[in-house]
Amino acid sequence: MALIWLHNRGGVFYRYFKGSEQAIISELTHEKPKAVSYELPEVTIENWSASARSSRSYIDEGRLDFFKDRMHSGDYMFVQFAHNDSKKDMPEKYVAPDDYPKWLEIYRKMAIEHDAIPIFISSITKRNAEDFPDGHFHYSFVEYREEMIAFCHDTDSIFIDFGNETVKYCEMAGLEKTKLIYLHVRPGEYPYSSHSGGKIDNVHLNENGALIYAGILVDCLRSCTDPRLKKIVDLLV
Fold this sequence. Notes:
This protein is of the alpha/beta class and about 240 residues long. Helices cover about 35% and strands about 15% of the residues.
């Protein structure tokens, strides 16, 4: 069984599966963004995510063709977009909320044609409490989440409300502690990286944040009552 991964926490997700210490990690493609395989004793996770892509631009670039021959009966495809779909100033990426289901259907159709199971996941929140007068975190992609919920209801697809759970986590952690999971880098902290001069990024996660959020997603999978997820849940540590 393989899990085909289309969002950016795929690089740490494998650590939550049985046998992760035996993982064989290999590159499936060599041009950036690279696709990476994590082969475990009972499951293989393939991370085909590509940063800065929307549900539309990922397809327009032909990225579905990269792995369609690798998908087989009984596999799962995890699909998560919205960050870049919402960028109205980038017409090559932008997807209006009411057009979002049209693009999601292309992913669903491809999975179904291969007798695989698509899983649609609401996008993580931004670290945005400082942007609101009430000082609370608010979900950043409400319209896209609502469209995904309706789409999954209409197509009998699995929906995981990951975004809602990340808001809950940020509320619990608070403003200062969330700096430790999003990409907040002090000047000189990483002198040999592209962030040597410092970085304040309330959208992307650091490695610690990716691991924490992957753990939240694992909890979401465990709590989902859809029997189609049982094969995955049984493999989690």
